[in-house]
Every structure is written in structure tokens, then in C-alpha cells.
Amino acid sequence: MIFREGDQSATAFVIVSGQVELSKISANGPIRLSILSPGEIFGEMGIIDKSARSVTAQAVGTVVLDVIERDGFLASLSEQPEVALTVIGNLAERLRHTNDLIFNPQNNYSSSTSLTVQTSPPNGTPDVQRRRATVFQNLSWRAVAFGAAGKSSLLHALMSLFLPPASQRKHMEFRVAKLAGDEDGSQTELLVQSFAGQTDIRVKVLSESLPVEMEEENGRFLSTANLVARQRLQGEDADLLICGNVNEIGTVIRLRFVSLSNDSDHPGAFLVTDRLALPTGFSEDFGELLFAVSLAATVPRNEAHRQLIKPMLLPALEAAQESGQQPPLELNNADRATIQVCYGNVTALIGYYASDPNWLRRAALAYQEAIEGMTREDEPIGWGNTQFHLSRVRQTLGERGSDPEIIENALTGFKDALGVFNQQEFPWEWAALQARIGNAYYRLDAINGDTDFLKDAIAGYQSALQVYTKADAPLKWSEVKNNLGQALQVWGDLARNRELLVRAVQACQESLQVRSRIETPLLWAASQNNLGSALFLLGRMTEDSEHLEGAAEAFGRALEIYLAYGSARLTKVAERNMSKAENLLRARLARRVAKLYWEEEPGDGQAGQARRKTTFRKENLADLD
């Protein structure tokens, strides 16, 4: 238990890993209000107005929290306006959900728990309505936190200045292209009905099928079709495009999902080769699966959209669990495998957002079941696609547990997938695999201390940069540049090689050409910390004070961000690094000043000067030790 409803408030919390459940006591007993994920803040209202806790917060499994004390939090709000705006913006976004989802804004929490959701699902079944209502209730807790007992806090008043009118509030836009082969449009309409009642999602049917039917299984075709779909999506200013076809005999719908960006490379992120097969005239359960898969396939435009998607994923997966784990027998093995893989993607994404290894293990099981039903010879694209997903999950689990065996299994899977995703047909997937191979080798070196792994890591990063460019893929380019700089500085320090350290500094500086303090503050801080480390090692090796000065400045810039975001662990790392750089710099400057003083000291003779120099060196070497 983290705190109970009614407890006194003195601190706020930021979730580092794991999940936190928020609940509230009602006339009918305790009601779960929300599940929060890493990066989210809770308990902040109490340290603003000293009110009692309005909800109960309980850890779901193992949870790591950063604690924010009241004095430090209020000081940050008053001294750093950007921090205040960030907090206000995050809370305003959560309030937005409530205002959008509750039809009667005068309802208190008790009435909202019995909320009836007007939906028009296939056949209008009550079960679907109840599942949808669960999603609505899970998003409504912040209204209680801010409006309990009719109280109006200072921050609540401030937030009202930032809340846009309801007509201007953000939502997600989905587009469904008319399915090729769907002569009467009934199967296309069935897809649309799967999103009925979702007030945060607007769905529109495109009257025409895509110019290129996305069915053939080869890299060039898929890349071209994906480009055409993304251009159409951009023209619609929408977030996700669902397209596909009905097979010739009218028994199977095969779908592709296209989002605005293909930069994402984390557990659950969709690949260009992902597809979902459903039987024509599918039931409500498979409509729930389609809804969950569509959420997972959507790459958020910004943090507001990410916060919109995250709390919807778990209820959607729970509703789709039976259909995801038991694909229909009337589908062939390849089509059944697409359901298992997409179900694994949703599960993996929940695990990624929640930093929960249990969800990742469930995703790995889904991928393993899918891959057991296919062979590389018969289904090369599907087999390689599943290997890619499975290995991403394994790599994440291996890195979390510092388990070299799991990481090596992931590495083997990535290399197997490279046999399918070659650079000519699948350049982006090939580059992503190379970058992940680099990460796996880097982590294996950290565990085993094998310099050859570092060389292999650098080779992987350099291969990825053959495809990733600053112009075409700026975020991925900057990520790989940052990782390359990290590997180079470790190797350079071990080999006592100045050239490698210079290359490390250059790679970090190039990463910062894309990562910015405003748009990607935490990534920017990570690259600043990495740059500071490379400069520190270079300054220590060359005795160049300018490098040490640059290191201290870089560590200081990283520290500012970590303090602003209340990250205690990263703050300590940056403080420790900056202290080391400043201490070494002071020692160097002291030695330089003393040397000048000795040179100008008159009439003491060479023997006296030699004694003073020897004594000074011994004292400072002892300090540096």
C-alpha cells in the first residue's frame, strides 16, 4: 500500500517501473479507478493544497517510485515555469478524458460508476456495452481527485486557464479504406462497427480502396504499398489507416495497419510485415481484438496521444483475450498465426509501457505458439516477422535481468531474421535489426567484459547508419549515434586510444543535432550525460582542461533536466559525474597555477624548485586517487 484515501499528503510520486492501482471507496464498496504506468505522476494535489488523499494508491506487483517532496516540488513550480507547464499540461490532459467521456458533467463519481455507454456494436450486444463502459470508468478518476467534496484547489484553478474548449480537444483519427474484394461494403462496415462508442476515436471510411492492394508478400511491394498508404494517411491528417482485402472466395479478411511514423522499435511495435486475418462476418469478440490491435498499431503523435492510448490497452486486451488466444479453426495456419502475433504485439506493448516482465513473457509465449505453426520455407515473411518480435521481447527481458543466455538467444533470433529482412528489400527492418544486434553485443560486453563484443556492437551500429540518415530518420539516426558514442568511449577507455574517444565525442555531438531540450528533454539529457562521459575520459587521457570543462557543462545540462523531472536516480548519477569532472578540473588548474608560481619564484635555486615540484605532484596524485 502506498497511501490510503484520507491519509495526510506530503509527497507526490513518479512511477519509474511497474504499475499503480488507484481506487476509491463508494457506497457500494471500493472501486478501481485507474492503473497508472511508468512516467506518470500521482499524489500531486495533496502537496499543492495539503488536502487529504482523495484516492487509495496500491502497488500492482513490484513497483519502483521516485518520491517528490513538497518543498522541492513547489520550488520547481515557482523557479522553473516549464516544469509548472508540464505538470499542468499532464493533469489537464487527464481531466480532458473525463470531460470527454462523462456525458453529464454534473455527475459525481457515484453516478459515473453506473454510466451507461451508448454503443452501436455489431448486433448491439450488451456484453460489448459493458466492456466499453469499463474503459470509460478507468479514465475518470482524475475528476474525483480534483473535485472531491466540491473543493477548488489552486492548481485546479490554474488548469482551467489551460483547458481548451471541448470542440478543440484532441482525439485520434482512424481511417478505414474500402476493402478490395468487398463488393457490397458489408465487411468494411463491420470493421467500422468495431470502434462504435469510442468517443476518443473518430473513424471515417475512405470510399476507395488503396491504389495498391496490400497482399503480396515481398519487401519492395510492401514498402511501396506502405508508402502509398502513409501518404493517404497524411492527406487525411489521421493517425491510423486500416486497409486490406477480402480473399477471392469471400471467407477471410486480411488487414494491414499503417501509422504516421515507422520510427518505433520497441516490444509490440508493428512492422511493415504485420497483418491480421479475420473470418468474414466476424463476431463481436474478434471486433474487440481488432480494436485492441488498432490501438497497439497506432504510433502516438505526442505524449497526449500516448496518454490517451495507454489506459485503453489493458481493458481492450482483456476483452479480446479469448479470441486472441484461440484463433478460429476455419483459418489456415498462416492466418491463425497472424492473430497470435498481433495478440502478442498488444501484450508486449502493455509490458513495454508498464515495464512489467510478466506481460513480456506472455507476449513471448504468444509469439512462440505462432512460430511453431509455420516454417521458414513455407512462410518466410511471417516466420521472419515473428522471429523479430520474439527476439525484441527476449532482448528486453535479458537486459532487465542481465541474463547473457537470454540476450544471446535474442541475438540468434535477430541474425535469423536478417536472413529474411535483407537490406535491398527491407532496408528499414534490416537497419533496425542491425541496431538491435549492436545493443545486444554492447550489453554482453558489459556483462562478460569481452572487448570483441564491443567491436561487434560498433559494427552493428555502423551498419544501421547505412540506412538511417539525419534527413530520413532523424530520431533513429540520433539514437544510433548516441549508442555508437557510448560503445566507442568504452572501447577507447579500455584501449587507451585517443582517436576512439574523439570519435565518441563526435557521435554524441551529432546525436544532439536532433535531440533537443524542448522536444525530447530526457533523450537530450541522456546524450548530454553520454557526451560528458566521453569528454571526461578524453580530458583525463590528454590532460586537456577544455575537455574537462566541456564534460562538467554537459553533466550540468543533464542534471537540470533530471531535477526538473524529479528523477532521483538519474539526478544522483549526473551529480556524481559532474563532481568527478569538477574535482579533476580543479586539480589540473591547481597544478597549472603552482607550476607558473614556481617558474616566477626568484633566487631559490634548482634543487629547491625540484623539491617543491616533487612534493606537489605527490600531494595531488594522492588527491586524485
User: Which structural class do the helices and strands define?
Assistant: alpha+beta
Biggest sheet descriptor: 5 strands, mixed
Average pLDDT number? 79
Major β-sheet strand ordering: 6-5-7-8-9
Question: How would you describe the shape?
Answer: globular
N-to-C CA distance: 45 Å
For the secondary structure, the number of strands is 9
What fraction of residues sit in β-strands? 5-15%
Annotate the secondary structure layout:
Elements: E1 11-26, E2 29-36, E3 41-42, H1 44-49, E4 56-69, H2 70-79, H3 81-101, H4 109-112, H5 126-138, H6 141-147, H7 154-162, E5 172-177, H8 186-193, E6 201-206, H9 219-236, E7 240-246, E8 252-259, E9 276-279, H10 284-297, H11 303-325, H12 333-354, H13 357-372, H14 380-400, H15 404-418, H16 427-448, H17 451-464, H18 474-495, H19 498-511, H20 521-542, H21 545-564, H22 568-600, H23 605-624
Parallel strand pairs: 5-6, 5-7
Antiparallel strand pairs: 1-2, 1-3, 1-4, 7-8, 8-9
Helix pairs in contact: 2-3, 3-7, 5-11, 10-11, 10-12, 11-12, 12-13, 12-14, 13-14, 14-15, 14-16, 15-16, 16-17, 17-18, 18-19, 18-20, 19-20, 20-21, 20-22, 21-22, 22-23
